[in-house]
Amino acid sequence: MVQLQSVHPTILNGASQSPGLLSQLVREASCLVVVLLAITVVGCSTHADRVRDARYAYFANDLTKASALLTKAESKRPGERECLLLDRAMVSLVYGDAAGSEALLREVRDRFDYLEQKDLTESSLSYLTDDTSKAYAGEDYEKVMVRAMLAISNLMQDGSDAIAYSLQVDQKQREIDQRSVGSTNQRNTSPIASVAIGAYLRGIVQEESHTNYDDAERAFATVASWEPSFEAAKFDLARVRAGVHSTSGNGVVYVFTLVGRGPFKEEAFAEATSDALLIADRLVSAVGPHTLPPTIAPVKVPAIVVPLNAIDSVAVDVDGTPTARTQAVTDVGKLAVAQFEAERQEVIARAVVRRVLKKAAVYATKDALAVDDGISNFAFDAAGVVWEATEKADTRCWGLLPETIQVLRLELPAGTHQLTLRPARQGQPIGAAHTVGVEVFDGRNTYVLASFPTQDLVGGILTSRPAGTRAETQRSPRTHQAALPAAAPSKTSAFMLR
């Protein structure tokens, strides 16, 4: 970052009295322009540019390289630390270190909560530089997804904190929704207000208790309302209303899959729309006696990119028999795009304000120095252009999120089973099969997690109960259960097996 130093009054006086000194200042200003141009050429890479190799290594299943690159970047770029920790958490999770992933996610969650307190100094500085000068407080969808991934990471261990994390998902959504009312862009509701993954996770954990069916019913009803395309929710509701987790002698396996490459940010140019100019005019007026010029050239802004993914689900075989495919319970890509579109005019407006204030600063400096000759004007105008050119769009983000979080519920007899996962598109396999052994206990849940950002598995398949796991002796036994209506099992089976 280039810092602008104040000019001592004696220098200004001397310059006005000595043409030779003024020429020297012009030459020095011209040299400064050259230096700034060099800085512009070598120093304008964005966060997206700097982490590209680490992300490619992750998608290529080179987790050691991905982790090393992210750790190295973290030591060099403290302003990007939270984003890098989030990506490291994903690497740790698919590598099999769920506890390490949970610790990293918890650190970022707490940091984001702290950074929600706005720093006026940082906000002011960002108008003289760009948004990358501010500490990264996370996008709203990232704040929600941190809590969702915390719950999933915890489920892959003992699950003792999964309900607490899932409640935090809903709590954070409510906070965001309340904050969005009366915001600058006057949104009535937040696009983050209907993320079903937290309620779903809470429902499956409450159901496993065999007693908290009322809580499970409320959770699944929320899922059905918020994510109507998730067809499994209606069968979940029918099951918990009947008060039966599973048939005696059976347990349940939940297969969670992280499917597709998720949203990330890239730098783009955007036209100053009329809505953005209205917002910018209010911001400029609040800063000082400035006005917007009649025309504004396109400004640099971050753009949300959701890749076109070949994979759309994961097919699961049980003990060699084709069984079912996973289904999306949360679409992270749509979530990120919805938030970006809701806030886009504000982002453009801030970029417009920066441009106006930078031009105003150049003009004010020229007036203070009484610059009136062509060479000096050129030097200052060129410096102003370079100052604007050094601005970068803030592309910091959680770049290793999936496009969708998907799940499949399987009720299986207690014992050891082999699950085979295969990436699919429109029901057809498009990649290699991967098998994992799981242990199913009577009346209990077993959790499985796999990441398929492409048609290739990244990392290994995690399970909370690997094959050969001993049965717990201190878990609550299966309690009283109402008889499940005869139609419900067949409906569920028909849905799950088609």
Please tell me about this protein's structure.
With 498 residues, this protein is of the alpha+beta class. It has a domain at 9-248 and 330-402: Serine Threonine Protein Phosphatase 5, Tetratricopeptide repeat (Alpha Horseshoe). Helix content is 51%, strand content 18%. The chain has helices spanning 9-17, 19-43, 47-50, 52-59, 63-76, 81-95, 98-115, 120-128, 140-155, 162-180, 197-208, 213-226, 232-242, 274-287, 332-368, 374-389, 487-497; strands at residues 250-261, 264-270, 299-305, 313-318, 321-325, 327-331, 402-413, 415-425, 428-429, 434-440, 445-452, 458-463. Strands 6-7-1-11-12 form a five-stranded mixed sheet. Strands 4, 5, 8, 9 and 10 form a five-stranded antiparallel sheet that branches. A two-stranded antiparallel ribbon has the order 2-3. A hairpin with a 2-residue loop joins strand 4 and strand 5. Helix 14 crosses helix 15. The longest helix is centred in the last third of the chain and has 37 residues, at 332-368. The model is unreliable at 1-42 and 482-498 (pLDDT under 50).
Map the helices and strands.
Layout: H1 9-17, H2 19-43, H3 47-50, H4 52-59, H5 63-76, H6 81-95, H7 98-115, H8 120-128, H9 140-155, H10 162-180, H11 197-208, H12 213-226, H13 232-242, E1 250-261, E2 264-270, H14 274-287, E3 299-305, E4 313-318, E5 321-325, E6 327-331, H15 332-368, H16 374-389, E7 402-413, E8 415-425, E9 428-429, E10 434-440, E11 445-452, E12 458-463, H17 487-497
Parallel strand pairs: 1-11
Antiparallel strand pairs: 1-7, 2-3, 4-5, 4-8, 6-7, 8-9, 8-10, 11-12
Helix pairs in contact: 1-2, 2-16, 4-5, 5-6, 6-7, 7-9, 9-10, 9-15, 10-11, 11-12, 12-13, 13-17, 14-15, 15-16
